[in-house]
Amino acid sequence: MFEGLSGKLTSVFDRLRGRGALSESDVNEAMREVRRALLEADVALDVVRSFTDRVRNRAIGQEVIRSVTPGQQVVKIVQDELIATLGGEGQGVDLEAAPPVPILMVGLQGSGKTTTTAKIAKRLSDRQKKKVLLASLDTRRPAAMEQLAVLGQQVGVDVLPIVAGQTAVQIAGRALSAARLGGYDVVMLDTAGRTTVDDELMAEAAQVKAATNPHEVLLVADALTGQDAVNTARAFDSALGVTGIVLTRVDGDGRGGAALSMRAVTGKPIKLMGVGEKVDALEDFHPGRIANRILGMGDIVSLVEKAAETIDRDKAEAIARKMQKGAFDLQDMRDQLAQMEKIGGLGGVMGMLPGMGKVKDQLAAAGMNDKMIGRQLAVIDSMTPQERRNPDILKASRKKRVAAGAGTTVEHVNRLLKMHRGMADMMKSMGKGGRGGMAAKLGQMFGMGGGMPMPTPEQIEQMQKQFGAVPGGGAPAALPPGLSGGKPGAGLPGLGGVKLPGLGGLPGLGGNPFGGKKK
């Protein structure tokens, strides 16, 4: 979502970093470009003015003039102000109240409110072990009640039974009574939505709020609607007193302005963001991490956390044992690719690595994308268990059968096998190198051994430094040797001669078996 804004800001700061000294005119020129980039990203005009004024006042002051690296110091100032604009410290859903804690979900129709309600319920149930009850208050749209019932069954959370003829206030009262009697920790009330903000909608939501006294009033806003989302947030906040915002469709192609504007305009924190359609595609909103993504510094911390949550410990340990023996078959490769999909796919991973914005474009141009991973999985799935364990038996007739089963060609199967051989050699060398270096740690992160314990804050800070994501430091010219599987700048093997600095041999990404002709 922030790629367009990130690309424009990165180019501005690259020019600043290249200068040994900065004049006031240099700063003013840079701020004009930053202003233009923010406006193109659909950030509210008053927010843009305030932001650029604060940055300019600090950037032409003593802290930059006396700095050894003035260009990087300006980037640090921009980072600080971005974090402040986005809300400073991240805030989660507040459950500090006597159970059952009522949470009122509000928002316009089509913003993803019902789905988000189920996502939050699953999150509270799985992560905080809370007993959650869902209740739909949308009496005008029976399909909404059925939708919440289906989603509740899907995420394993109880849903209040539907009783025909009740009003929204009556359903809310029944939900609270059922929650108290059933020993629930949280009761989530999914209110009715409208296509636009109107008096009837607000009046009903206000009545429900008065009857239930919710501890949280969470507004669900579609990030793709840009400034309309900001206007909606302002209207709901003035009528109901919103306590937090959940942004949906953050994974879309929007320009990112809503996220930057909403906190500044409403003063209310963005607590969560939806990053996909799946019921677990919900993330905490951390202003510092989002600022790093916007400035091209990556988000190693979120990547590590996501990997720690999704990687199968047993599979990781099994692959670790095989690596130590120098074994890496196609089933292991399939597990690698599946793990890559779980933590956001190729695009998601690259977006969280510092300095990868330009490399992502190169990968896309070369055909390296999430669809490619799906095609790789299809080829491996078309093989028998014996063929996956022993790829050497894949001769001409077997390759034809596999290609037909995957809907591709024998040439693609051959490319996949060639990529596997290269990865197997790398796994063998990593296995010999022990498990204490950066390569082994990255291997563990992507499910290649060690069981993936959650790293300590000190370890995370060290990883941030190793990846160059330090305030004002910008992005590294190449990834460190541990990530490249060899020396920096080695290029990505099997990509038809396309050299991508510092990406030589990233596990699960080496080579493009479905690319076009060599360049």
The assigned CATH architecture of the largest domain is 3-Layer(aba) Sandwich
Q: Report mean pLDDT, rounded to a whole number.
A: 74
Low-confidence stretches: 434-455, 463-519
Strand content: 5-15%
Determine the number of helices (DSSP H or I, runs of at least 4 residues). Answer: 24
> Could you state the CATH homologous superfamily of the largest domain?
P-loop containing nucleotide triphosphate hydrolases
Helix/strand class: alpha/beta
> What is the molecular shape?
flat
Query: Order of strands side by side in the largest beta sheet?
Result: 3-2-4-1-5-6-7-8
How many β-strand runs? 8
What top-tier CATH class of the largest domain fits best?
Answer: Alpha Beta
C-alpha termini separation:
30 Å
Query: Could you give a short account of the major beta sheet?
Result: 8 strands, mixed
Measured as a percent range, the helix fraction is: 40-55%
Count structural domains: 3
**Quaternary assembly:** single chain
The whole-angstrom Rg is: 25 Å
CATH topology of the largest domain: Rossmann fold
